[in-house]
């Protein structure tokens, strides 16, 4: 029997481990199962290069609860250890078995999938255990060993009668951690962290139906047999080559990742790169709502099939954190508890690679089947628009596949759109004016007026559209965007020819002054415009600059300081060529005139969705009175 002190620089490291090293106690199981997987993969590698005489076979890892004995067992059929190796790897905490192994076999072990982090990972057991035992037998045939430690620096190491290769770790669960003896808790942790580990993990047994015999009688009752309950999928889709997978395989894996998600993904992007870093994974574009925040933290980060986190900020470009899926890379640096990303040059390279890969996939989808891409546009546009604003590299590529839909549900790229409208929608100053609506129903009358002129009107309704068009205007000379209800249509796209006013300048001044005494000056700027006599007599618009700045301020970023709280200010455009304007000018009774202006103003507000509450009630009452 050997006794001794664990070689650590701090007199008692275990309270430090428990309190500081690991932020989350539940990850002890991830670490121990990772170590068991590590030991099994090492054996596989050594057997494959002829350095182990042990038969690899079909090893599994077993996790077992002994509720009565308050013990949790993690058993593997991997490499095992001799007493000398236990002394080295367990007692001399500074060593890492995996690191030494990789150094020794670095060329041939490149693809062996060794997880690493053995040293400190093992000690996470003391977060939940008052005593830990290791019973282990090496693949070399060396005598088995039994190590015991109660959480102090003291340990015992004695021979063991274990006859089978591998390691069994027994945790004597501490009184403050008895939740880890509950089957549902352990099953939940194994599913969370070890769902895709490369070695089968057994957790209990289950009943499996036997095939029905061909000659079974009519009253045959299904028979069952007890089989190992394997809780993981050792060969998940992302570990395979894209050529091995069908569309159904990708969808099936999506359902495996998100069993509570009922919508099918729109499409997927398979990541597979081994230089200058190693990265595999599958990203899915789900159907997205306009609520960006609700979508985040759906991508899972793995290291060699071990779950690390679902906070992938920094690794995945921010605009793609709204996607779903898996990324697996051994080259992403993490701290000792694998919980936090560390700043590193590789991370930026990975982020850039993912951006490029997504852009290339979108371009190919657009090119190969534009019709299908257009059908999916409304479900993916928010991600792409956000990407154009936040990632310069994505913006550079986006012009070839980002679409701009019209109110008639036709789709153009920006270059196609500019070509389509250049003859009709270029104003007298040589600027091409792109008209857009944000709400097809609310802005219907304005859209109709624009279409009567033969103009195209886009439907741009995402919450960040003001930021996007600001950027597009900055990058495209002589191009400007104007919301269709931002002014009278003839003012939005001013041509050389001008409408002649039926009213003289003096009459216009009289009419304007008269209206200004009736409408609130702090809210409306009255403007008389000579328009088509059939156009609406009163029209309410909001200046493009003012409205856009408010929207940008409200949606974050851009805009002017405090614009989000700036009081609403509108233009009241009076069509001086309308019969109503002439009638109003000729009305001498001020009370009648005031009622006519209020009614016309309310109608204009109604067409903009601005008539609400008490004002709407008064308008309805007044309207009914006129038809008595």
Describe the structure.
It is a single chain. By secondary structure, this protein is an alpha+beta fold. It folds into four domains: 2-204, Histidine kinase-like ATPase, C-terminal domain (Heat Shock Protein 90, 2-Layer Sandwich); 237-372, 2-Layer Sandwich (Ribosomal Protein S5, domain 2); 403-498, Rossmann fold (3-Layer(aba) Sandwich); 501-545 and 560-628, Four Helix Bundle (Hemerythrin (Met), subunit A) (Up-down Bundle). It is 36% helix and 19% strand. It has a nine-stranded mixed beta sheet, covered by helices on one side. A five-stranded mixed beta sheet has the order 10-11-14-12-13, with helices on both faces. Strand 17, helix 13 (444-452) and strand 18 form a beta-alpha-beta unit.
Q: Can you tell me the residue ranges where pLDDT is under 50 for at least 5 consecutive residues?
A: 94-99, 109-119, 335-339, 558-564
Strand content: 15-25%
Termini separation comes to 108 Å
Largest sheet: 9 strands, mixed
CATH topology value of the largest domain: Heat Shock Protein 90
Radius of gyration: 35 Å
* Count of runs of 4 or more consecutive helical residues: 20
Instruction: Estimate the global geometry from the Cα principal axes.
Output: elongated
Nearest-integer average pLDDT = 84
CATH architecture of the largest domain: 2-Layer Sandwich
- Quick one: CATH superfamily of the largest domain? Histidine kinase-like ATPase, C-terminal domain
The residue fraction in helices comes out at 25-40%
Structural class: alpha+beta
Number of domains: 4
Spatial arrangement of strands, main beta sheet: 1-6-5-4-7-3-2-8-9
Number of strands: 22
- Name the CATH class of the largest domain: Alpha Beta
Protein name: Molecular chaperone HtpG
Pfam family, one: HATPase_c_3
Keywords: ATP-binding, Chaperone, Nucleotide-binding
Family: Belongs to the heat shock protein 90 family.
């Amino acid at each position: 029997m050997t006794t001794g002190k664990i070689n650590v620089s701090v007199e008692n490291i275990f309270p430090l481990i428990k309190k500081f090293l690991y932020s989350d106690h539940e990850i002890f199981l991830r670490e121990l199962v990772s170590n068991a997987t590590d030991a099994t993969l090492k054996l596989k590698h050594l057997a494959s290069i002829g350095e182990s005489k042990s038969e690899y076979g079909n090893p599994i890892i077993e996790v077992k609860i002994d509720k009565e004995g308050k013990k949790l067992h993690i058993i593997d059929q991997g490499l095992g250890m001799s007493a000398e190796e236990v002394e080295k790897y367990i007692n001399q905490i500074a060593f890492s078995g995996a690191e030494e192994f990789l150094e020794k076999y670095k060329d041939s072990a490149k693809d062996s999938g060794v997880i690493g982090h053995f040293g400190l990972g093992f000690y996470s057991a003391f977060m939940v255990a008052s005593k830990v035992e290791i019973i282990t037998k090496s693949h070399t045939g060396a005598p088995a060993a039994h190590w015991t430690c109660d959480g102090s620096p003291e340990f015992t190491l004695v021979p063991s009668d274990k006859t089978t290769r591998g390691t069994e770790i027994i945790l004597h669960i501490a009184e403050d951690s008895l939740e880890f003896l509950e089957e549902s808790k352990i099953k939940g942790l194994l599913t969370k962290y070890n769902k895709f580990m490369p070695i089968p993990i057994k957790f209990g047994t289950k009943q499996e139906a036997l095939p029905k015999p061909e000659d079974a009688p009519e009253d045959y009752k299904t028979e069952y047999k007890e089989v190992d309950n394997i809780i993981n999928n050792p060969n998940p889709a992302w570990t395979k080559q894209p050529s091995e997978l069908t569309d159904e395989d990708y969808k099936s894996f999506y359902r495996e990742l998100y069993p509570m998600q009922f919508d099918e993904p729109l499409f997927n992007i398979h990541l597979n790169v081994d230089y200058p870093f190693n990265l595999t994974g599958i990203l899915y574009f789900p159907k997205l709502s306009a609520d960006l925040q609700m979508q985040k933290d759906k991508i899972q980060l793995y290291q060699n099939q071990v779950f690390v986190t679902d906070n992938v900020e920094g690794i995945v470009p921010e605009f793609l954190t709204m996607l779903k899926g898996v990324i697996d890379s051994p080259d992403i640096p993490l701290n000792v508890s694998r919980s936090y990303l560390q700043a590193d040059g590789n991370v930026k390279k990975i982020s850039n690679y993912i951006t490029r890969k997504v852009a290339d996939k979108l371009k190919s989808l657009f090119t190969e089947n534009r019709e299908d891409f257009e059908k999916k546009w409304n479900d993916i546009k928010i991600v792409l628009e956000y990407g154009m604003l936040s990632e310069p590299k994505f913006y550079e590529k986006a012009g070839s596949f980002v679409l701009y839909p019209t109110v008639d549900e036709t789709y153009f790229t920006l270059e196609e759109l500019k070509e389509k409208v250049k003859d009709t929608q270029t104003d007298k100053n040589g600027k091409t004016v792109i008209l857009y609506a944000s709400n097809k129903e609310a802005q219907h009358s304005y859209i109709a007026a624009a279409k009567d002129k033969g103009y195209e009107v886009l439907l741009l309704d995402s919450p960040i559209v003001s930021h996007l068009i600001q950027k597009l205007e900055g990058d495209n000379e002589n191009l400007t965007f104007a919301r269709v209800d931002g002014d009278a249509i003839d003012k939005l796209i001013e041509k050389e020819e001008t409408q002649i006013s039926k009213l003289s300048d003096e009459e216009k001044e009289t009419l304007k002054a008269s209206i200004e005494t009736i409408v609130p000056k702090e809210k409306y700027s009255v403007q008389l415009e000579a328009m088509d006599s059939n156009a609406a007599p009163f029209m309410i618009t909001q200046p493009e600059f003012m409205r856009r700045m408010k929207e940008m301020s409200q949606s974050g970023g851009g805009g002017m300081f405090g614009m989000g709280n700036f009081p609403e200010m509108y233009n009241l455009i009076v069509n001086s060529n309308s019969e109503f304007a002439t009638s109003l000018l000729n009305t001498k009774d001020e009370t009648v005139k005031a009622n006519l202006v209020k009614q016309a103003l309310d109608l204009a507000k109604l067409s903009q969705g601005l008539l609400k509450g008490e004002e709407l009630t008064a308008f309805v009452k007044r309207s009914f009175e006129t038809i008595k």
